[in-house]
Amino acid sequence: MSTMAKDGAAKLSKNVLRMKFMQRGLDAELKKQLDEEEKRIISDEHWFLDLPELKAKENYIIEERSYAPCEDLVFGRMSFRGFNPEVEKLMLLMNTHQEEEEDDEDGNVSRMETDITDEEMAKRYESMVESMRKKFAKKRNRSTVTKSEEDVNCNVVEDQPKRAFLKPQD
Amino acid sequence: MDTIHACFKEKIGEVLLPGDVFSFRLPESGDGSIKSEKIICGPGLRRNGEEVRVCKSGILRHKQPNMYWIDSQQRRYVPAKGESVIGIVTTKSGDVFKVDVGGSEQASLSYLAFEGATKRNRPNVQVGDLVYGQFTIANKDMEPELVCIDSCGRANGMGVFGADGLLFKVSLGLVRRLLAPQSEIIKDLEKIFPFELVVGMNGRVWVKAKTVQQTLIVTNLLETSENMTSQQRQTLFKRVAEGSL
């Protein structure tokens, strides 16, 4: 009888043995066997392409179709001697990138010490002077202030006559 | 065989013709110790598998660290990504303008590609207007696409321009000479009188000065300076500045 019972236990189907609660009672060898079988089933079900392995070559030649990066071409809009001040501002803006890069290479230390160059500061204050003067000017004088804006640095004294009562002529 | 650079370097400054080939073996990097150097081949050079072929006739130029290109003279413009050009609006069709840029095909320009343009607020662009724009798409055999804003959505000088003034065409070589940093022609020209200039990489140049006569003078000087030595140019410009011409 005992042998028969053993045979009965051995005949438990694999699917039953694979269940989680059955794992505890299994011995190591049987466990291994089951795992292998499971792996085989999984790999059989997976498809794969029968291709040679692709070798990606490193691309060491880069193509560039434009002349602009080769010859460091500048911004295409230009204005000279104040013909179009807006464009001249743009020219400064667009063409400084290259100059700054060059500056950084040789003048790195000096640039680190002063974030704002003397020139930038002077430019900033130039506009400040005008707006402050406008603020302190009386309403009546404002129009004259704006008129004389152009010659801030030229010391031409405007000899406008003072406003006074004009006697009607007979 | 030497490194890639060596086989280019011995040809720098020489005239090359279409069909010339630079061939080199890759430095073996089996163990990863020798890192192959990258090179950038600019206009006129084309990659063909393991070699570089010349496809324009001209002089081989080099820029540090690893850029090589052919300096050629041509009048035909081929759009290239990132280049700024002057275009003429030819048709308005729905969402896009068709713009003639001098290439094989007209470029398309979206009405949204202007500064401050929205679906409701269309830019005021008429047929015949001049636009200064940049290529965002310029592939072989495909319609190129222009925009009049930069990546931040700002115009930065692009867009419709040129209420009056004069538009004319010069060779692409002269355009590059005009756009070169510290260009000698520009330096000589700006001494004469105040004027404004828009230079497109497609060979179109637009000039405006105070009077029509001055505009024409600048135009003629630019056109003639194409085939002049710097000395000839300077004497001519001096005579113009003195008013004897």
Automatic annotation (TrEMBL), chain A:
One of its GO terms (biological process) is maturation of 5.8S rRNA. InterPro entries: MPP6. Residues 98-118 are annotated as: Disordered. PANTHER family: M-PHASE PHOSPHOPROTEIN 6. This is M-phase phosphoprotein 6-like.
UniProtKB/TrEMBL annotation, chain B:
It holds the Pfam family KH_6. Keywords: Cytoplasm, Exosome, Nucleus, RNA-binding, rRNA processing. It is found in: Cytoplasm; Nucleus, Nucleolus. InterPro entries: Exosome_RNA_bind1/RRP40/RRP4 (IPR026699), KH_dom_type_1 (IPR004088), KH_dom_type_1_sf (IPR036612), NA-bd_OB-fold (IPR012340), RRP40_KH-I (IPR049469), Rrp40_N_euk (IPR041054), Rrp40_S1 (IPR037319). One of its GO terms (molecular function) is RNA binding. GO terms for biological process: CUT catabolic process; exonucleolytic trimming to generate mature 3'-end of 5.8S rRNA from tricistronic rRNA transcript (SSU-rRNA, 5.8S rRNA, LSU-rRNA); nuclear polyadenylation-dependent rRNA catabolic process; poly(A)-dependent snoRNA 3'-end processing; regulation of gene expression; TRAMP-dependent tRNA surveillance pathway; U4 snRNA 3'-end processing. Residues 42-76 form the Exosome complex exonuclease Rrp40 N-terminal domain. Residues 165-213 form the K Homology domain. SUPFAM superfamilies: Eukaryotic type KH-domain (KH-domain type I) (SSF54791), Nucleic acid-binding proteins (SSF50249), Ribosomal L27 protein-like (SSF110324). GO terms for cellular component: cytoplasmic exosome (RNase complex); nuclear exosome (RNase complex); nucleolus. Belongs to the RRP40 family. This is Exosome complex component RRP40. It comes from Carassius auratus.
